[in-house]
Amino acid sequence: MAFRSTGDAQRWLAEMDTRLARRIPDRKQRLELLRTVHYEATRARLDPQLVLGVIEVESGFRKYAVSRAGARGYMQVMPFWVKLIGQPGHNLFHLRTNLAYGCAILRFYLDLEKGDYFRALGRYNGSLGQPDYPNLVLAAWRGRWKYDGPIG
Length: 152
Hints:
This protein is mainly α. The chain is built from seven helices and no strands. The termini are close together. The model has no long low-confidence stretch (mean pLDDT 93).
């Protein structure tokens, strides 16, 4: 985790762990998710709290969520992405795989939209031009997942 100190990392993890406890009762699973979110988000130059907002809206923190359109996992990644940016056999229900894909896709759309979160989130969800999805994610990010503690 990219924090200024071990203490800063522990404070972030403890804060997010508390917020996530009612959604994922198993502490080991929660901590694994949070560490992976932070790692993959930071790797993709994304705010980890934004990624938590996406996960909340996309899957409600359900690892095995499947949408009517066939999107899979925490970040609801469509299977066609495996052919575009992955390797055959990648399992979109695998925690790290799902988050790596989701973060890479979101970063791609943020770059494409020159940092416009509203448009990038619309593209991510396939709802470009419709305000519901981006507004839900932005509200979750800036509300429930906001964190003002020190991050390096």
